[in-house]
Amino acid sequence: MRHVYECSVRFDDLDAFGHVNNVTFAEYLQEARVDFAHRQLRASSGNAPHEGSVVVQQSIDYLAPVPFRTEPLRVEVWVTRIGTTSFEVAYEVKDESTLFARATGVLVAFDVRGNTPRPVNPVEREILERYLEPAP
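^ Acyl-CoA thioesterase, sequence as received from the core. Prediction below:
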């Protein structure tokens, strides 16, 4: 299963060529990841506010330029691997006819108070497993 986030293209997302700037794609991924964390993980896991995850690696493949548009982009995020203290995610940024970007990332479960990684707890693991599917 994939978590779906609809992301608006803002006028200031565009570069000098009239396309969404490459750096902005990272913001779109972050918005989808935060939406996933708040709607799925945080709401269901019972984690304290200081418990969450941090991004330790991210890679984006740009497949097609995104011009300004009024229709939102669809950002899909899903889990591709769950480890002891980390998990990997994959993303697709697309609309009904075009795949604009693919991305992957590694997140580490983190305790902000202790400033240390922590194990993925059993409830988080159960939630993450619902979104587990192979990378494209």
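The chain has two helices and six strands.
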